[in-house]
Write a structure and sequence with these properties.
Blueprint: E1 10-15, H1 23-39, E2 43-46, H2 53-62, E3 64-67, E4 78-81, H3 88-96, E5 100-103, H4 107-121, E6 125-129, H5 135-141, E7 148-151, H6 154-158, E8 168-172, H7 178-191, H8 205-218, E9 223-227, H9 233-244, E10 249-252, H10 260-263, E11 266-273, H11 279-291, E12 296-299
Parallel strand pairs: 1-11, 1-12, 2-3, 2-4, 4-5, 6-7, 6-8, 9-10, 9-11
Helix pairs in contact: 8-9
Length: 315
């Protein structure tokens, strides 16, 4: 135990389940690893394969090179599209440069792309519920040829200007807060009763399960620590759930970020992890909490996840 830290600052860690990697993230990481085995280094990856610093550092050490633009990729090179998906323009640009593309887009994101395209083919104006600038949102937006309205709050729904309220549809970013998305969809249905869109349950199963696990533990913990990187949308949503539940909530991706005062006087510390955070990082956070005097760890049962996505052909 660290000498200058008082013992027994916290009594117990309650560990959420499910937590950490989802099937889409697991598949995307395996795609990069397998591409490196099959093709050798370097393998170029457009954007961050998933939003976690530790995962990226490990893949870099194996020979992956992450780029922000296809112009950084040598012509004909092996190139992986990230789990967040890409636009038609990116697909076409890769083809024009004869890149050997391996698509690691999460199948649930691909499902959203197909929904949006189907609505547009029906002549509907499309609303994308999500955060502007997020890679998934930009990829989905870039699959739709016509105008796309991107919004994330009921207030934006009230200010929305559309062409024909009878020809309107929405799709959603997969990593949003279920509660926030419900509020936006309710506002859309209230203002545009004829609007078409997927059921709320079509939000990524992993996003829902991790949020439900946090909701279930909030009443039993005094502080919440979410393991995940700052640019991880689903990890931030978990932290926000804790804050809404009235408990101090922190997002960390390094053990040393966990401060002694966070657990001082707290009987129970809740710990979860975003869908892109590896389990070995969770274990490092738990080790840090033990250094700070948290004695025991109790793992909740939670929803069992059995989803597995197939690898692309050729890998």
């Amino acid at each position: 135990m660290t000498p200058d830290i008082p013992a027994n600052q916290g009594e117990e860690v309650v560990l959420a389940n499910p937590r950490g990697f989802c099937a889409g993230v697991d598949r995307a990481i395996q795609i990069v690893e397998r591409a490196l085995e099959v093709h050798g280094a370097p393998v170029f990856v457009l954007h961050e394969i998933v939003h976690n610093k530790h995962v990226l550092e490990r893949l870099r050490s194996l020979g992956a090179r992450f780029v922000k633009d296809l112009e950084e990729v040598p012509e004909g090179a092996v190139t992986v599209f990230s789990a967040h998906g890409v636009s038609d323009a990116v697909v076409n640009a890769a083809a024009s440069r004869r890149l050997e593309v391996i698509d690691a887009t999460c199948p649930l994101v691909t499902k959203v792309h197909r929904q949006a395209i189907r609505y547009e083919d029906q002549g509907r104006e499309v609303i994308l519920v999500g955060h502007p600038g997020h890679p998934e949102v930009e990829g989905t937006r870039g699959r739709i040829k016509g105008k796309v309205h991107v919004l994330s709050t009921p207030e934006e729904v009230a200010a929305l200007e559309i062409t024909d309220p009878e020809q309107l549809a929405y799709v959603t970013q997969t990593t949003l807060s279920v509660d926030d998305t419900r509020d936006v969809i309710d506002a859309l249905l209230s203002r545009f009763p004829s609007i078409q869109g997927p059921a709320l349950k079509d939000i990524c199963y992993a996003t829902q399960n991790r949020q439900t696990a946090v909701k279930d533990m909030i009443g039993d913990v005094d502080v919440l620590i979410v393991v995940g990187s700052e640019n991880s949308s689903n990890s931030n949503r978990l932290r926000e759930l804790g804050e809404r539940g009235g408990i101090p909530s922190y997002l960390v991706d390094r053990p040393e970020q966990v401060q002694p005062e966070w657990v001082a006087g707290k009987k129970t510390v809740g710990v979860t992890a975003g869908a892109s955070a590896p389990e070995d990082l969770v274990q490092l956070i738990l080790a840090r909490l033990r250094e700070l005097g948290v004695r025991n760890t109790r793992e909740l049962d939670g929803e069992k996840e059995t989803v597995v996505f197939q690898m692309p052909e050729g890998l």
